[in-house]
Specification:
It catalyses: beta-D-fructose 1-phosphate + ATP = beta-D-fructose 1,6-bisphosphate + ADP + H(+); D-tagatofuranose 6-phosphate + ATP = D-tagatofuranose 1,6-bisphosphate + ADP + H(+). By secondary structure, this protein is an alpha/beta fold. Helices cover 36% and strands 24% of the residues. Bound molecules: adenosine-5'-triphosphate and 1-O-phosphono-beta-D-fructofuranose (F1X).
Length: 304
């Protein structure tokens, strides 16, 4: 089973505004709410792809209760824990001429909370993969390193979709997969990347630092996978009508894991990663299976 950890989930309020402007009232023409947060998005797409998964992390307050009810509707196995300060954040995602996101703060966590979470994760039967992704709340800086250290005796594959120092601290644990996007890769090395060759070079640097597989997502430009066998595969972007790209990266992580599992084929992993990411970009909320399977046929992969 694949467990996902979302330390700071959010109710995603996705709205469409015909012409978004700052400094005035904007009225929305379409709106929807989803139980968001990176790990939960990964689990939603895994479930669409018939992979056994469960969600965990922390909720708080009345929005936390609402979040739980939204999860129940999605029929995800829910191992979230409650903390008794603050409230689960509400993140606003505006689709307009361009996309604008406003992400909230969420509750404060302590390392004692992380210990409770680790105990919960230990109890999960058949756990083989642990996906850790998203923002680390104040109070628990270094949380992912702490969780991986606490669970280092378990035989699980760590998967990390986190940024900056939080990512670097986890590389000594040899994550099975990391998924920086292009901007995050640039920020990690304080450089500007212009070519696929440069993407491959810096992905390789992350392998030298401990990562096994590195998947660099590049929005509409597709994604590059540097496998643990040192093969670089590139999946071209697919053109289509973008609804909202929120969760596209998380869907790619889910697609990668679902595609890799049956035959341990990295080409199939990349194909499904690209299809799932694209399907989510073309959907409000995370992608559904039919769209993912339809797009899978359109993914072109080349060795670079
Ligand atoms: N505008 C787009 N058009 C086509 N495909 C897209 C688009 N945006 C994203 N994708 C697909 O989804 C994948 C992941 O998207 P992206 O690189 O934006 O991830 P991300 O920055 O981690 O996103 P998020 O943080 O919102 O989950 C891309 O590599 C691509 O395959
Ligand atoms: O604030 P974080 O944890 O970095 O990102 C949270 C978030 O923006 O990421 C998901 C998309 O990847 C959304 O569902 C959610 O609102």
């Amino acid at each position: 089973m694949i467990a996902t950890v979302t330390l700071n989930p959010a109710i995603d309020c996705v709205v469409k505004v015909e012409e978004f402007r700052t400094g005035c009232l904007n009225r929305v023409s379409e709106e929807a709410v989803f139980p968001g947060g990176k790990g939960v998005n990964v689990s939603l797409v895994l479930a669409e792809l018939d992979v056994d998964t469960c969600v965990s992390g922390f909720l708080a307050g009345t929005t936390g209760k609402a979040y739980e009810a939204m999860l129940a509707e999605q029929k995800l196995k829910d191992h979230f824990l409650f903390v008794d300060n603050g409230f689960t954040r509400i993140n606003t995602k505006v689709s307009s001429q361009e996309e604008t996101e406003i992400n909230g703060i969420g509750p404060v966590l302590t390392f004692a909370d992380l210990d409770r979470l680790c105990s919960k994760l230990r109890e999960l039967p058949d756990l083989n993969t642990l996906v850790l992704s998203g923002n680390v709340p104040s109070g628990v800086k270094g949380a992912y390193e702490y969780i991986l250290k606490s669970l280092s005796d378990l035989q699980v594959r760590p998967v990390l979709d986190v940024t900056g120092k939080e990512l670097l601290k986890t590389l000594p644990f040899h994550p099975f997969l990391i998924k920086p996007n292009l901007e995050e890769l640039e920020d990690l090395f304080t450089i500007r990347i212009k070519t696929l060759g440069e993407v491959r070079y810096y992905a390789r640097e992350l392998q030298h630092m401990g990562a096994a597989n590195v998947l660099v997502s590049m929005g509409a430009e597709g994604m590059l996978l540097l496998t643990e066998e040192k093969t670089a595969l590139y999946a071209k972007g697919v053109k289509g009508k973008v609804a909202n790209t929120v969760g596209a990266g998380d869907s790619s992580v889910a697609g990668f894991l679902a595609g890799w599992e049956p035959e341990h084929s990295y080409e199939e992993a990349l194909r499904l990663a690209a299809a799932a990411g694209t399907a989510t970009a073309f959907t409000y909320g995370t992608a559904h299976r039919d769209e993912i399977r339809r797009l899978e046929k359109r993914i072109q992969i080349e060795r670079i």
